[in-house]
## 1
Amino acid sequence: MLIRILHRLFSHPLLYDMAQVLAGAREVRRRVGRQVTTREAPVTVLDLGGGTGAIQPYLPGECRYICADMEMPKLRGFRRGNPRGWAVQADGMRLPIRSSSCDAVICMFVAHHLEDEPLRVLLGEAKRVLRGGGELIFLDGVMARDRLAGRLLWWLDRGSNPRPKEALRAIVGKEWREVREESFAVWHEYWLMAAVKSCDGGL
């Protein structure tokens, strides 16, 4: 009962953002934002499960940022701070976005909400909407049983399927050609990977 009440409270945009900050999300967002490369033309970045769009300040200023999430209260929170921002209420496994239209797709804090097969479908959608040469930037917390703070955060989190790093690598590595990989810890331990879609549409 307590966990259900907390989950309902943290669906509020302000409380959701505060909880993310307390969990060390600023450092995580800085690391993810550095992975988005700039080009001569503005870069279109799709943020899957973007919540309130809190990653946006950490991206290059010329980015065209699209915040996609299933929860309308969080998207409303994003729009209040970004009245001209692009907010899309969508399931990441069925994106209403045309193929080959994005330069980068961020998938951050999403994987632990999904079982293996839905995660593979989401990765397939990310590949579909990316242009050739575009990048997937994938990050999730990993299950590290020796980290007490991490175990507490997993208990509070709505995600039902945290995985060890090796399991994440096995799933993501089947769909993408790895380019950069990084492991680090704040309260959680995290795994970050950036991968490129080849220009012919393959991996």
Note: DSSP finds seven helices and seven strands in the chain.
## 2
Amino acid sequence: MEILTAEQAESLTGLVLGGLQNEWQTTRKVILAIPAEKASYRPDEKSRSAMELAWHIAASEVWFLEGVLAGEWPKEAGMPEEVRTPADIVTWYERTAPGLIEKIRALPGAVLAETMDFFGLFRASRALFLHMDWLHVVHHRGQLSTYLRPMGAKVPSIYGPSGDQEMPPAGESAG
């Protein structure tokens, strides 16, 4: 992986953290669109259930944030007992992630440029691992969004109106 200067790492981190926060608003809508009574839906026996995938999205993002903050990868945490519905996942994430994001935002560029080992597979800067987190979230959110219609749910807007929404009049936001 590419080695970043402190200035590059700081700049990339600011961009990525802003992107993660924006993407979370979209991911939140997708998770909340899962009908709680159908959260066990899986399109194939090899697939995660909608609930498992939603948890993976939120928990792995927190895992990435904690790892970048600590400079080493933490042990993966299981789903807390109080998390039983998609809405509970969103509540857990919203209680957990923002503080981590702010702590990372406060790290100096030299720390963000430090490299970390990814389980012996490769090394990259802390800032680049944040970018990997962003890509990971978007990837799995795309998977989860394809579960919604087969569960009888509506797909919310992601990067514009979905097929389940009418186009807004000119000059208005699709939300």
Note: The CA atoms of residues 30 and 142 lie 9 Å apart.
